[in-house]
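Appendix B. Extra example for self-study. Work through it before the problem class; the solution is given directly after the inputs so you can check yourself.
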Amino acid sequence: MRRSPLSLLALSAVAAVALLALVSAPVAVQAEDLQWGFTGHYITAAIAEGYLSTSAKAACKNILPSWAEGSIGKVASWADSSARSKYPWSGQLHYADTPEWKCNYDQARDCHGGVTGEPMACVDGAIQNYTKRILDKSLSDLDRGEALMFLVHFVGDIHQPLHTGFTTDQGGNLQKGTFCGVKGRKLHQIWDDDMISKRIKDDFNGDNAAYMKYFEKELAKGGKYYIDLPSWERPCASVTKEPYRACSSQWAEESTKLACSTAYVDQYGKQIKTGFDLDQGYQRFAIPVVEMQLAKGGVRLANVLNAMFSAREESTARYHAVTPEQFKAARQQEQAERRAERAQKATEYLKQRNAEAAKPTIALE
Ligand SMILES: [Zn+2]
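Solution. Structure tokens for the complete assembly:
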């Protein structure tokens, strides 16, 4: 969905809302809400919720409108639903596309309103703008609440590789084909929704809560993402003075690389073009990237919010509830445990092999 002009003044506009939650209570979801898609946005925000510090949780609750009941998960798709009609100019803030096969992100080149060319009117600029606005106490509660709802959403968007796709095909929106037998799917939709829905249906029996548990497990000690947490959380150079600042340019750079490596090519390394026919093999190839990006987005969103709110409440602002030193120690411990586990397996194997060798051989007649 590409979009109409933006004025920077419009960025200061306000909005009221209506909403939806995924989780347990079934809520009617309108078609327009199904865009990193409703489920993807929810997952990212729900992961972030698990990492929020007490002070960040309390601050979010204060700032968000009452219908959100303090949950950033509940507001994660607001920018794709109510805000789209209330603020038509906000459409161009959901992405930062690059020229075709330029697999890097260049803020001066890529971050501008698609229609107006307004500087910083892209998802990277929007993240920078809304982090500042959340902390701006001269703004009304409504403005700050909306800034937070936009931020939660845009951190999700910037981690969807096709939100930093190519300008020529509008981030995969102009590429249409078949996905796992379903015709007429846009490549962008496949990344926003289809692969996530298929994964939940095929591997988690359609159970969203079980899927959330899977992320929880993979982010915890021993999980496949655990080892990556320190690098996901590492602050970028620009945040030294303002520790709450999101490293959104860096995130856009990562996403655009993934767009080139995984979203625009199939599992055989073949370029995906309109009229494509992508199957289960593509799902298997791409879903690890989809999931890593959802997890990464969640962890980073929590970091930004934690740093943002602790920076105001504590004398020393720091990232996350866990310090880099603690992470380093935990990582070293985990590596040591893995080494010990491997050594034990090797010993057991050798013992077994020696026992086999010691067995008397039965002579063949
Ligand atoms: Zn969006």
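Self-check: The chain has twelve helices and three strands. If your reasoning did not lead you there, revisit section 3.
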